[in-house]
């Protein structure tokens, strides 16, 4: 895979795309940024910017004003190649908080290994109803130690509104969900993206996460998607590299939280 070409395609086809990203979510260009906004259950934030030292601060202020008027917390997804070079510092000065850095990794679906053998007693189940979403949320909370309330609402909305472009899979040990992952398809881009993959602590190191990656790669290839993209944590990066994913760049989520939510109680 040509890494520079893959990054160029990712930037042009995914980051710079505009229009509908779902029945209520919209990707729109506003000056030198592309932002996404929608309903309460949707993600909100800036996905791309084409700024320089002279325009950055005004653009940051404009996005804060826009999302504040909507009463939304939002994320500015900053990539290492974004300009100006001090954009991260400018975001922090404006009140954003950086989350842990992630690694943008991409692989060609045709080059990834065939689905691996699952450990004895483990089976993969596709999520098709709210009961399955509830199990996805349970795994998230146990694997990551954080609330899955927002994720639960997001997955229920996606299952209802865009079932053809989100695929959710559980690894089950009998009736116990031990790993959960999903894949989002981006029609017309050639890219599918991987999310989740949290595994319960007692079941880690057995190849379940690896098997779920290979399973989703096979599904993406069958649907005609050339590339798989993932924002990898430090824990998943080594596994993905061994599977054949290439590092393209790094990305840092910068979060802006509203100090007061209009029409909502404060605590």
Polypeptide structure, described:
With 267 residues, the protein is of the alpha+beta class. The protein folds into two domains: 3-102 and 252-256, Aminopeptidase; 113-243, Gcn5-related N-acetyltransferase (GNAT) (Aminopeptidase, 3-Layer(aba) Sandwich). It has seven helices and 13 strands. The protein has helices spanning 3-15, 56-70, 87-93, 130-144, 149-161, 208-222, 237-243; strands at 19-20, 26-30, 33-37, 45-49, 74-79, 97-98, 102-108, 122-126, 166-173, 176-186, 191-199, 227-232, 246-256. Strands 1, 2, 3, 4, 5, 6, 7, 8, 9, 10, 11, 12 and 13 form a 13-stranded mixed sheet that branches. A hairpin with a 7-residue loop joins β3 and β4. α4 (130-144) packs antiparallel against α5. Mean pLDDT is 91; it is low at 260-267.
